[in-house]
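Please check this protein record:
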Amino acid sequence: MLRFSSISLLALSCVALFATRVLADELEDVAGDITPPSAEPLIGSASQMAPQQLVLSNYKTEAFLLSVAVGLVVSYFYGSRKNKELAAAWEKPISDVLRANFSLVGDGRQVFEWDSAADVLFYASGRRHCKFAQGHVVLRARQDAVALINDLAANTQEKVEIEVTLNETESSGFVFAAVPRKRSKALGRDRYDIATFTKVVSNEKVSPKVAIFSENADATTQLLDSGLGDILASEASLLEELHVTDGPSEKPESHDFKCDKKLMAVIRLPAATTEGLAQFKETLEFVFYLVDYISEAIVLRPESTRKLAKAREEAFK
């Protein structure tokens, strides 16, 4: 993304340079057409003797290109500043939750690392039941006028994506996902673990707008009983997606592969008001509560464990 932003600025600079160069060439041509003064009398009409006048209306295209280039450059810097202000507002609740759960947050000094003018990364490690957590704050591309119009037309939501890598031996391996129903077909098509091990099931505990992908009924029931079912039942919930998996997102190319157990969540960013910040912080805290719940509270029956192991043997043989 950072490379894309640099390319965009370079392109805008080229447009501005091109427009300025064309305008300079035109002015040079006009200046060259002006007849220099001469000591000898000139023979001809008055119109032939008069110097050519500079008419600004002749340079509408150049002026338009220059205006667009300047407008896009101004938009880039204004949008980048706006995104920095929003990121600063979300940094505190994210930092508070991370520091309450992990011994090392960021590089020890700063939590956020900018990847582009609309993308912020964060990292934390040093917590029970997991190896580390990494996250991605996705803001609207306010620095890019064209992309921003695209985001607004598509109603793209600003969000935080979190991925927690769980300790291998401290939890049962199963696949589960809760996503907006409108995304269910794409998810089932794009993720190998979802397509291979799960099926869509109905559940009265969640909103009808939410699709549940379940591999094991026992694991799904226990997971929803954690409080997740209540959150997914609420229309005002900020939790957009939740995935628990021990399988690969793409089909392995060989039998010799390693796949970590992961908990992944997508949290929608509300307006950065006092209420919005508090609700977001509560949702983020719940995600890390699930790290403990999955490792400590979910206990599968022996027959469920054998069935899960057999499914993996058949899928990866």
In short: The first strand starts at residue 104 and ends at 105. The mean pLDDT is 84. DSSP finds nine helices and ten strands in the chain.
